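Sequence design from tokenized structure. All designs in this work follow the same two-part layout: the structure record, then the generated sequence. An example of the structure record is given first.
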């Protein structure tokens, strides 16, 4: 938890993990594109970290297979936190309070007074914090477990739209995580003026996955606006309406994307979209939201 909130992990001491993954914003940052150490927006929005313990692939383009691998991306990316392994070790080993904390966590490794904090210990510590971010007791969950009054009638109507074969939301956003953890090419538009984002095509080296991104979980989705990999949609209503706009309607003319077969033209009414948004707001559960440390070991 200390490491997650501490900006000393970045090259210039200005950006922490929590800068882009704010607990008060659903572990996102309310930006369409997150901002790194140079003050410039990076390529994509910050995905939420809730329930990452259960995710098999990480990042929008699914290029990481573990939390330990994932965290090294922003730590060492020159546009995000901008650090490097040598600098990170020098910084943390130079802070007596962190050395004492690591010695408590790994006593067998710190019997020698000259013992040093290792990279693996840093990765393991941050991962241990991230896997505590569990959100599985929303009002939806209470309803699913038999408490019928946990949802209003309008929210129940929205649930019926969500899981209907017309809207087909639940086929990709499958309970209980509200993601099937797959890559989907849905034809989401990028921000105006931004080049087309090839998404999973790059790490997978697979042309059919051009424009594909990992299906995000909808847990705590009401807290993480704006939406999509580029933050193109400012509200849940706009994001939901995208799916009823017609298959491939936002794909640039010069792109031939292999749109996921679940994407079609459900032609949902305004009332159905409103009820869908009502339901999505029942997926909020922050019972395990951590407290930001009042004082960090780095001072």
């Amino acid at each position: 938890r200390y490491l997650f909130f501490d900006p000393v992990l970045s090259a210039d001491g200005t950006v922490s993990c929590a800068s882009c993954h704010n607990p008060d914003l659903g572990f996102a940052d309310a930006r369409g594109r997150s901002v790194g150490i140079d003050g410039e927006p990076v390529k994509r929005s910050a995905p939420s970290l809730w329930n990452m313990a259960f995710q098999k692939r990480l990042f929008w383009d699914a290029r990481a297979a573990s939390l330990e691998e994932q965290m090294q991306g922003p730590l060492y990316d020159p546009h995000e936190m901008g650090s490097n392994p040598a600098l990170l070790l020098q910084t943390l080993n130079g802070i007596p309070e962190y050395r004492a904390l690591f010695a408590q966590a790994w006593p067998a490794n710190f019997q020698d007074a000259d013992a040093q904090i290792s990279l693996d210990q840093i990765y393991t510590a941050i991962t241990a914090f991230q896997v505590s971010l569990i959100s599985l007791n929303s009002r939806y969950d209470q309803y699913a477990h038999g408490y019928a009054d946990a949802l209003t009638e309008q929210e129940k109507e929205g649930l019926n739209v969500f899981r209907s074969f017309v809207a087909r939301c639940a086929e990709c956003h499958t309970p209980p995580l509200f993601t099937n953890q797959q890559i989907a090419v849905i034809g989401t538009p990028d921000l105006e003026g931004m080049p087309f984002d090839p998404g999973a095509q790059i790490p997978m080296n697979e042309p059919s996955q051009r424009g594909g991104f990992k299906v995000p979980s909808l847990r705590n989705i009401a807290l993480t606006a704006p939406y999509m990999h580029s933050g193109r949609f400012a509200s849940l209503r706009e994001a939901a309406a995208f799916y009823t706009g017609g298959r491939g309607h936002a794909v640039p003319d010069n792109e031939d994307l292999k749109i996921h077969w679940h994407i079609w033209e459900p032609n949902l009414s305004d009332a159905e979209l409103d009820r869908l948004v009502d339901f999505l707001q029942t997926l909020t559960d922050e019972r395990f939201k951590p407290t930001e440390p009042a004082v960090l070991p780095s001072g």
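The chain has eleven helices and two strands. We note this feature because it recurs in several other targets discussed in the main text.
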